[in-house]
């Protein structure tokens, strides 16, 4: 039976792996976030820095990167209104408006010309109802690495949708964040670990450094 390291290396073949960053935008995890508690958790936990490390390594290893951004038209057309979360977001002092600095990818995450940004105007998931599935299939993706925020809503949505669509989901637990701080490990342990390969940023980076069969 292969070791955990060998199994992870097999899952994370750069040719069939895509790295997804979820809502790592200035208006969510940046200094002027609409959700300062979440932004603080993403930064103080090291999750945002780890997302940046993973993206940089993906760029260096030929792994496609997708950035999933949640935004809203200034006129609100197409936005969802069927949950308390949407109504609360509409009242926040910082709005994730299309074309504004709030929906730009936050520092210190590097963005290359080869990265794709998928923007959604509705719903809770960065995968369901967006271009992500079609893009993953066109890239020949078999494994989706899910990073970003929040462990409360968007991250589990992305993981469940990826699994339901037939992809292997990999979650570096130190590259996601939610609130309160102790909620994230509980979500990982009790929910995400049941459907995804839970790992660490360092282990993902190490897997890309290991030689692969036939190479």
Determine the N-to-C terminus distance.
22 Å
Q: Quick one: how many beta strands?
A: 7
- Principal-axis shape: globular
Rounded to an integer, what's the Rg over CA atoms?
Answer: 16 Å
Structural class: alpha/beta
Question: What is the percent of helical residues?
Answer: 25-40%
Number of helices: 9
Classify the beta-strand content into a percent band.
Answer: 15-25%
Largest sheet: 7 strands, parallel
Uncertain stretches of 5 or more adjacent residues: none
Mean pLDDT: 94
What report would you give on this structure?
By secondary structure, the chain is an alpha/beta fold. The protein is about 40% helix and about 15% strand. The protein contains nine helices and seven strands. It has helices at about 5-10, 25-30, 35-45, 45-60, 85-90, 130-140, 155-165, 185-195, 200-210; strands spanning about 15-20, 65-70, 115-120, 145-150, 170, 175, 195-200. Strands 1, 2, 3, 4, 5, 6 and 7 form a seven-stranded parallel β-sheet that branches. Strand 4, helix 7 and strand 5 (about 170) form a beta-alpha-beta unit. The longest helix is centred in the N-terminal third of the chain and has 15 residues, at about 45-60. The chain starts with a helix and ends in a 6-residue tail after the last helix.
